[in-house]
Amino acid sequence: MVCFVDELGDELAKVSEAGGGGVWVTAITGLLKKCYNAWATINTAEKVGEEIERIDWPAVSIIGAATPEMFFNSLQPRDLESGFANRLLILPFEGYGRPREQSPRSELKHPPKEPVAGLRALPKQSNIAEQTSTLPPMAEA
Description:
By secondary structure, the chain is α+β, with helices and mostly antiparallel strands.
């Protein structure tokens, strides 16, 4: 599912504001995190005359437009701590400048020996690709 949202910063600010319009509004962030999980199952709300609909693996994508100031001001520290903001892919925007390219310092061309030795000392894991999946097969479109 793809959702297109204009002024995404304004919409995120509604959720982030103190009080946020009640418990149901602040629950939106939790629901979005659940929907981003490609392997989750969501049940729609029960309505008069309509049965609950089960949605397997919703994998929601939100494509939003916002001014950088409004977008970044709408995010709270808890959005980073909870992992909500980690699910965002921010595209370049007007005023965004890529830093000039630099050659790495000579001491940074190779990783430090101590962490590399520690990683090599870790027990070897079996190849995950060779393990059988416990997930149900994907439905064909």
